[in-house]
Amino acid sequence: MHTVVQHPLLQHRLTILRATKTDPKLFRELVHEMTRLLAFDALRNLPTVPVSVRTPMGDAAGVKIEGHIVVAPILRAGMGMLEPMLEILPYATAGVIGTKRNEETAEPIPYYLNLPKPFPDSFVVLVDPMLATGGSACDAISTLKKNGFSKIVFLNIISCPEGIARLEKEHPDVPVFTASIDERLNDRHYIVPGLGDAGDRLFGTL
Ligand code: PRP
Ligand code: URA
Questions:
Q1: Which ligand 1 atom is at minimum distance from the Cα of 129?
Q2: What is the pLDDT at residue 206?
Q3: Nearest Cα to 185, choosing from 101, 82, 127?
Q4: Out of 22, 38, 163, 169, which could bridge 134 as a Cys pair, Cβ 3.0 to 4.6 Å?
Q5: What is the DSSP letter of 133?
Q6: How is the chain split into domains, by residue range?
Q7: pLDDT along the chain (206 residues), means of 10
């Protein structure tokens, strides 16, 4: 299942994010803001339990988010989405998945993994701004599942038909929330029109 979040607040920022002239500082700020907007939609069904809160005027019925939430960025570009997620989920833990595409084949090469202990109610929010061939995201999800995590949602900024199709085939249980499904991949496995290399644009390593 995939959802393209069409909200104008998100789409306006996506347009600026794509622009070649957008520098790394603005790029990071936009990724932060867009992550929060995507999360607003993607996490609308987070489980909650009823709680009561004392106000100066009496008691009010409220809710508390239930379960262990893990925010898992795929390095390196996913790091840009970690901080805004932890801002809105201050009790979440972070799990880090290091994967780098082979520049020729686009095959994901895992190089680092640091995940918290899984609990029966763990819920993973996997974050990566780019979903191209789908190799990195599929590999990251397989790794999460092998390590005991079964409830996973994927937050993404730009995807393409190839990546969405692969993810839905290999991991149909993982919903994807994205701001765009772009046209296609080029012969170097980059998304067109996309925004170029998200890691380089975030960290100024172009
Ligand atoms: C980018 C991006 C994704 C991946 C997407 O990372 O952040 O993780 O490519 O491509 P895929 O769907 O074809 O796997 P990259 O491997 O370039 O590493 P980086 O973030 O360290 O630059
Ligand atoms: N990774 C990126 O950063 N950009 C793409 O277009 C594809 C993979």
A1: 7
A2: 85
A3: 101
A4: 163
A5: S
A6: 2-44+67-203
A7: 97 98 98 98 95 98 96 98 97 97 95 98 97 98 98 98 98 98 97 98 95
Q: How far is CA 68 from the centre of its chain?
A: 17
Residue 73, phi then psi, degrees to nearest 5: -80, 145
DSSP states of 170-188 as a string? H-TTS-EEESEE-SEE-TT
CATH code for the part of the protein at 2-44+67-203: 3.40.50.2020
- Measured CA to CA, the distance from residue 7 to residue 126 in angstroms comes to 21
Closest residue by Cα to residue 173 from 112, 107, 126: 126
Residue 147 Cα distances to 6, 141, 184, 185, angstroms: 33, 10, 32, 31
Looking up tokens 């929010």, which residue turns up? 125
Residues touching ligand 2 (Cβ under 6 Å) are 77, 130, 132, 190-191, 194, 197-199
Handedness of CA 176, 151, 143, 146 (dihedral sign): negative
Q: Are 42 and 125 in contact (CB under 8 A)?
A: yes
User: What is the reported pLDDT for 178?
Assistant: 98
Which of 35, 128, 168, 195, when mutated, tests ligand 1's pocket best, judged by the most ligand atoms within 8 Å of its CB? 128
Q: Whose CA is nearest to atom 4 of ligand 2?
A: 197
Counting ligand 2 atoms within 8 A of each CB, the residue from 81, 105, 180, 191 with the most, and so the one to mutate, is: 191
Q: Which ligand is nearest to the CA of 131?
A: 1
Alpha-carbon distance of 82 to 103, in angstroms, equals 25
Structure tokens at 133: 């061939």
